[in-house]
Design a protein that fits this description.
It is a single chain. The chain has about 375 residues and is α+β, with helices and mostly antiparallel strands. The protein has three domains: about 70-160, Beta Barrel (Thrombin, subunit H); about 180-280, Thrombin, subunit H (Beta Barrel); about 280-380, PDZ domain (Pdz3 Domain, Roll). Helices cover about 20% and strands about 35% of the residues. It is built from seven helices and 22 strands. The strands form five sheets. It has a six-stranded antiparallel β-barrel. A hairpin with a 2-residue loop joins strand 18 (about 330-335) and strand 19.
Length: about 375
Amino acid sequence: MELNLSCPPEKKKPDSGNRLTVLLLVLVAIVILFQTSLWISGFYTGPSALPRAITPRGDLALEEKTTIELFQKVSPSAVYITSLTVQREWFSLKATAIPRGTGSGFVWDDQGTIITNFHVISGGQGAQVTLSDQSSWPAQVVGVEPDKDLAVLHIDAPRELLKPIALGTSNNLLVGQKVFVIGNPFGLDQTLTTGVISGLGREIQSESGRPIAGVIQTDAAINPGNSGGPMLDSAGRLIGINTAIVSPSGAYAGVGFAVPVDVVNRVVPQIVKYGRAKKAGLGITMVDDNVVRRLGVAGVLVYQVIPGSGAHKAGIEPPRIDQRGRILQADLIVACDKVPVKTQNDLFRVLDQYDIGDTVQVQIQRNSETIDMNVVLQEIGE
């Protein structure tokens, strides 16, 4: 029997240097985790977390100062308009006024006269006007002129809250002039946009279908809700009422239109005084343009002549038709004030330049005869 007298191998003692290294790594990890938690919780105040010093700006540019002063001066004249409709509860039949649409407008005088577009309030059963101090007032419709897309409202607000807008003129505007628009696009009240006059003498169609001539075109941003608001020149004077845009999407596309202030200043006093606009006309009714085109002629075909009117006194006659419905004689207006007339809108463009009592030369084709007549214009559209 052999005895193994060899000694068992000794166990190695842990290296103290390795233990120290592990301990240091653990401490570093704890410090990093602690600082990270402080940074996440917002308590870390290292040098990079302190606010930076503000760089002095210096004075505002002269153009900026001018724009700011203009807005501060004119914005109290701009108003926010809400068109209302009446909704009745199903069981109690209680009537409640609810918003139908929104638009813009401006203060015309300190008597509470407010101007906006006709299409802003059209179809509504009431309106509410919010002034720049955010006070709201129920509005009454004084009168409208759909042919010019104008509406006149009245509110019973204290005079100290009413800041009438300064009026300019639109007969000496130039393409390239700077313009300023204040309104409520998408319900964002007291919004200022700027641009230039892009074109003059444009034409748009009114709510009634008649053309509005001499319209101002601008690239200032005009969006839904700007309708009825003021377009201003660099002196802060009203030069137009924002009315329409051309846009495939229905939003701003760089082409907006405003009814000239000279039209506004002529029509509004009539509405305030009479409750409607007094328009000059010949004193006739006309055959629809589509019917005239089917007859193969160009011009305005007279359908009826109002007895005692300027047209009647000048000798314009209604059609003569035999028992079989054949036209024996008809008066076709082919020119007015020496301007060719092919459609009713052509005639309206000419007549819109004249007042009641003015005389215009009307050229008539009666069968194969051409006749010039002087017609004294009378009031129409009562």
